[in-house]
Amino acid sequence: MSAADLTLDFSVVRDLRKREGMTLEEVSRKSGISIAGLSKLERNQNMIELDTLYRLARVFSLSATDLLNLAESCSARCKDAEVYQSGPFDFEKVSFKGIDCFHAKADKGDELSKPEAHGDEFEICWLLKGGIRITLPREVHTLAPGQALKFDAALAHSYEILEDSEMTIIHIEKTHRF
To answer: Keyword annotations for this protein (predicted)?
Structure first.
């Protein structure tokens, strides 16, 4: 990890302030942080203390953790897809913290009864083309193009390909619920 990856970017405070239509003076009054201190923070010219982080987050109706996460990840991240096969399925996969996104293709008649190992996460399958049947312990769902199914990935489940199919599958850690 480079030094740039470890740096927090509190220019996000300026973005939040402008989005709320607030001036530095208003944020200063509501947070008790000096205008000079806020200005330096927005320009990444000083370090933030925990108490300052907490007071500033409250101005924007955020938790201190949420504000810190925004400062940590305000830049977009670009990744290349990993290409692989699992059983009869062809996959492209990209992963970010808390989420794995798959683009999958499978041929009619294919089945995957023991999908990739799962942690404590949700799975969403969005069918783009074809037809599939997803079997869960007490229910069966047949999807047509444009339909999606969300379920607890910890449950035993299988995919049966009814027609040549293309789908997007997303695994989301339960701690990142939407």
So the answer is: DNA-binding
